[in-house]
Write a structure and sequence with these properties.
- The complex is a heterodimer of chains A (about 110) and B (about 120).
- With about 110 residues, chain A is mainly β.
- Helices cover about 0% and strands about 50% of the residues of chain A.
- Chain A has strands spanning about 5, 10-15, 20-25, 30-35, 45-50, 55, 65-70, 75-80, 85-95, 105, 110.
- In chain A, strand 7 and strand 8 (about 75-80) form a beta hairpin.
- Chain B is mainly beta and about 120 residues long.
- Helices cover about 0% and strands about 55% of the residues of chain B.
- Chain B has no helices and twelve strands.
- In chain B, the strands form three sheets. In chain B, strands 2, 5, 6, 10, 11 and 12 form a six-stranded mixed sheet that branches. In chain B, strands 3-9-8-7 form a four-stranded antiparallel sheet, with no helix packed on it.
- In chain B, strand 5 (about 30-40) and strand 6 form a beta hairpin.
- The chains are: A mainly beta (about 110), B mainly beta (about 120).
- The interface of A and B includes residues 33, 41, 43 and 104 of A.
Chain lengths: ~110, ~120
């Protein structure tokens, strides 16, 4: 059974640019959640996708957007990057939107300069 | 809105000694509580969870946690720490359902250092 995978592992972007991060959910999981973890802090919920629809959103501006595909993989897109967007972005999958267990991937480290 | 407080930012413990990490939560309904561990450069691994029933829950790697509703606490314990337990530990409360937003709310984490 393959766990949650994320790509890329690291990337560096310039302020104002756009970035796309990718996540493949664990086999059999149809729900994907995204979290932002700034250095020295706990993860913060960005949004969740269930059956290709956004199913809950945290306190993040609209320049953070996402997609979920029919195979349940997901993308996180961030437009107009700001320095404060530098963080570890974590993806978590779960077997249903009412499942209380989320399985996390290793994360993508984004640095904005 | 739910929140989680982990009062200890860093804890240093000797190998073989016991460990207790504190977690206090705020949530209006019955909480779903979790402890995760994060090793450097890694994602989060679920150690244990509490949904209902027995207030003392057992997890992986020899960890346990006790839910105390009267104190709004969910402290994590391990009787004898191994060097491989050095990591960052996060307590989280889960809010699920359309009104709640389907999310985990995490504390700020406690970094555990293990002395030989």
């Amino acid at each position: 059974e393959t766990g949650v995978t994320q790509s890329p592992t690291h990337l560096i972007k310039t302020r104002g640019q756009q970035v796309t991060l990718r996540c493949s959910s664990q086999s059999g999981h149809n729900t994907v959640s995204w979290y932002q973890q700034a250095l020295g802090q706990g993860p913060q919920f960005i949004f969740q996708y269930y059956r290709e629809e956004e199913n809950g959103r945290g306190n993040f501006p609209p320049r953070f957007s996402g997609l979920q595909f029919p195979n349940y993989s997901s993308e996180l897109n961030v437009n107009a990057l700001e320095l404060d967007d530098s963080a570890l972005y974590l993806c978590a999958s779960s077997p249903g939107t009412n499942s209380y267990e989320q399985y996390f991937g290793p994360g993508t480290r984004l640095t904005v300069t | 809105a739910q929140s989680v407080t982990q009062p200890d930012i860093h804890i240093t413990v000797s190998e073989g000694a016991s460990l207790e990490l504190r977690c206090n939560y705020s949530y209006g309904a019955t909480p779903y509580l979790f402890w995760y561990v994060q090793s450097p450069g890694q994602g989060l691994q679920l150690l244990l969870k509490y949904f209902s029933g027995d207030t003392l829950v057992q997890g992986i790697k020899g960890f346990e946690a006790e839910f105390k509703r009267s104190q709004s606490s969910f402290n994590l314990r391990k009787p004898s720490v191994h060097w491989s337990d050095a990591a960052e530990y996060f307590c989280a409360v889960g809010a699920f359902g359309e009104a709640a937003g389907n999310k985990l709310t995490f504390g700020g984490g406690t970094r555990v250092l293990v002395k030989p």
